[in-house]
Design goal:
Blueprint: E1 11-18, H1 24-40, E2 44-47, H2 54-63, E3 65-68, E4 80-83, H3 90-98, E5 102-105, H4 109-123, E6 127-131, H5 137-143, E7 151-154, H6 157-162, E8 171-175, H7 181-194, H8 208-220, E9 226-230, H9 236-247, E10 252-255, E11 271-276, H10 282-295, E12 297-304
Parallel strand pairs: 1-11, 1-12, 2-3, 2-4, 4-5, 6-7, 6-8, 9-10, 9-11
Helix pairs in contact: 4-5, 8-9
């Protein structure tokens, strides 16, 4: 009897980025939904995806969360309505008050900081420029803190060049928290060149988690053949990780799970970087590493670039049960 020799798997070195995955704001938002379910029972309504991750949303749906895009989808109810981590406009909050809904605000505190900065600038008579991506829920929420026209969105250096403002001497800027650190810096430099007296944030608006995850990818990408970013396509911070990897020299795939990996472009890969966006759970990272372990003889090295110990308290309505 001819015994076929067992085919050995090719070696693959995995550089695992750290930090990766959930940030403090995401943990707080998910915990808020789970605590509300425990305290009030289902259903718990959530306006917009609590965080931009399909796995997280489907898991919470299975526990009794009902996701809606607008408050008019919420019936008259005593059930809680949770605002997502991305924040909402004052108009949305006003509707919730008018309808006497039990609204619980799970906006990330770092996004709330940007809201407050923008409002302070406006109350001091400054025109507010917002560096961000049009249509992103965080940008919609930030612009909605002030009256229409009070905030001008800036998405690119070209937008800076094209700005036509009545009073260029009384300006301030804030930024979306999940931008590319490098891209936003280029835009900010263009703003400060054109408007030398523009008021800058006291502290960087781009959140610590976005900055740290991008720094880890920058460290890893030059040393690997490819990068896998675990995250959803509508997650701004995950998309930025993919872009950072590619600019740092490694082709990158953004995948929501192991079923989306394009194996056809990984045939000759011998080293791989893996990271995860701030709204992607670690279980998805583990499943993807298991998928690679089925095809390769893997060795894993974790590349640390920062320690994260930040945590945020739950919304006040939910702290008693905690």
């Amino acid at each position: 009897m001819n015994v076929q020799p067992r085919r050995s798997k090719p070696p693959l070195k995995i550089l695992l980025c750290s930090p990766r995955g959930f940030c403090a704001g995401v943990v707080r938002a998910i915990d808020a939904v789970e605590r509300a379910l425990a305290q009030f029972g289902p259903p718990v309504y959530v306006r917009h995806e609590i965080v931009h991750n399909r796995y997280v949303v489907e898991t919470l749906k299975a526990k009794g969360a009902v996701f809606v895009e607008d408050l008019d989808e919420v019936p008259d109810t005593h059930a809680p309505v949770i605002f997502s981590a991305h924040g909402v406009s004052k108009a949305v909050s006003a509707i919730a008050i008018e309808r006497n809904l039990l609204a619980i605000d799970a906006t990330c505190p770092l996004v709330t900081k940007v809201h407050r900065e923008a409002e302070i600038h406006w109350r001091r008579g400054r025109r507010v420029l917002l560096v961000g991506h049009s249509g992103h829920p965080e940008v919609v929420g930030t612009m909605g803190q002030l009256p229409p026209g009070a905030v001008v969105l800036v998405e690119s250096v070209a937008d800076v060049t094209a700005l036509q403002l009545e009073d260029e001497s009384n300006l301030a800027y804030v930024t979306q928290t999940t931008l590319s650190v490098d891209d936003s810096q280029i835009i900010i430099e263009a703003l400060t060149r054109r408007f030398p007296h523009i008021i800058c944030p006291h502290r960087e608006d781009i959140c610590y988690a976005t900055t740290n995850r991008q720094a880890a990818v920058k460290r890893v990408a030059p040393h690997v053949d490819a990068v896998i970013v675990v995250g959803s396509p509508n997650s701004s911070n995950s998309q930025r990780l993919r872009e950072v990897a590619e600019r740092s020299g490694a082709p990158a795939q953004l995948v929501q799970g192991k079923g989306e990996i394009d194996w056809s472009v990984l045939g000759a890969v011998r080293s791989l970087g893996i990271t995860a966006g701030a709204s992607a759970p670690e279980v998805l990272v583990e499943e993807i590493m298991e998928a690679f372990a089925e095809r390769y003889e893997i060795s894993i090295e974790t590349v640390f670039t920062a320690d994260e110990s930040i945590s945020f308290p739950l919304p006040k309505e939910l702290r008693a049960i905690a």
